Amino acid sequence: MRKRKLASLALLLCVVLALAACGGGGGETRLIMATGGVAGTYHPFGGVLSSVINENTDMHVTVNASGASIDNIQQIGSGDSHLALAQNDVMYYAFHGVSIWSEREPVTNLATLMTLYPETVQIVVDAGSGIYSVADLAGMRVSVGDVGSGVEANAIQVLAAHGLTMDNITVINLPFAGSADQMRDGNLDAFFVTSAAPNTAVMELATARDLRILPIADDRAAALIADYPFYVRVTLDSSDYEWLTTPIQTLAVQATLITSTDLDEQLAYDIVRALIENQPDILAGHMRGADISPENAVQSISVPFHPGAQRFFEEIGALS
């Protein structure tokens, strides 16, 4: 009898501890945020976001390094993470099961919390290459990012808007650092980067080579935005790379904070409220905090808002 009572008490204690760990019984709600590689932007920026959430809500968010957008979306879909950072174009592909997601199961439990900052499409060439437009890439050695990546999808779309396909270039699949190394050694004519500007690999290459970033003309940009509404028009200038002597018109996708439709509505509301109301603290921790605002947070939404996030943005007038 005594052993059965002890076993029952032990079981009860386990239940209480489990409830506390997930926010039950008035305890702290614990969440996991998937970010990106430790050398990229997602991981340190996610760390700043988590700190602001932890300091201004009853939640405790733990940040995990990951493989970025594709990996993060899969983690949300499987329930391995509660929050994540992802590109809004990759979110669109995953939600609808198209483009780079056409051979994977769609992830239909994705929900948007807020847009964070633009990830700019940067087409980098050597300043002495004689390449001045996307059309000039025909016949050139071009790195388009890793196979199946969001960067590769962006490259295919931008090339198509200029009448080119992957058959018109010598395709090389390398990450940003590898692309920069190959251009430094003269083995590459151009490479695509989709990331926050400035990009570390581009900055480091600029110390060894004079570079140019190709513009995307207004008519081609308008056509791309019409076909792919997750794009936005952006300008790169000397505030992004000091060696840019004239502004460069290009496009960007949006880094987005995402969650699952299963997340409690009030938790979603409290997360976006904490981030919007404490934007100065985000900026103090990371330069990308400059892009956080109610207006920017609701731009280029490629997957529906979580009801809690939508309620917050409607209450403050950012959504009608």
Low-confidence stretches: 1-25
What is the total tally of β strands?
10
By CATH, the architecture of the largest domain is named 3-Layer(aba) Sandwich
3D shape: globular
Characterize the biggest β-sheet.
10 strands, mixed
- Give the CA-CA distance, first to last residue: 63 Å
Radius of gyration: 22 Å
| Fold-level CATH name of the largest domain | D-Maltodextrin-Binding Protein, domain 2
Order of SSEs: HEHEHEHEEHEHEHEHEEHHHH
**How large is the share of residues in beta strands?**
15-25%
| CATH H-tier superfamily of the largest domain | Periplasmic binding protein-like II
Helix content: 25-40%
Number of helices: 12
Count of discrete structural domains: 2
> What is the mean pLDDT?
91
CATH class of the largest domain: Alpha Beta
The secondary-structure class comes to alpha/beta
